Amino acid sequence: MKKKWGFTLLAFTSIGLLFPETGEAALGDRTLSKGMAHSDVKELQEYLLAKGNFPYHTATGYFGDITEDAVREFQSEKRIKIDGIAGPQTNGKIKVLRKGDMGKPVIQLQQLLQAWDSYSGAIDGIYGDGTKNAVAQFQRKVGLAVDGIAGPQTFSKLNQKASAADQSVKELTVASTAYTAYCSGCSGVTRMGVDLKKYPDGKVIAVDPSVIPLGSTVEVEGYGTAIAADIGGGITGNEIDVFFPTENTALQWGRKTVKVRVLD
Question: N or C terminus of the chain: which is more exposed, having fewer CB within 10 Å?
Answer without folding.
Answer: N
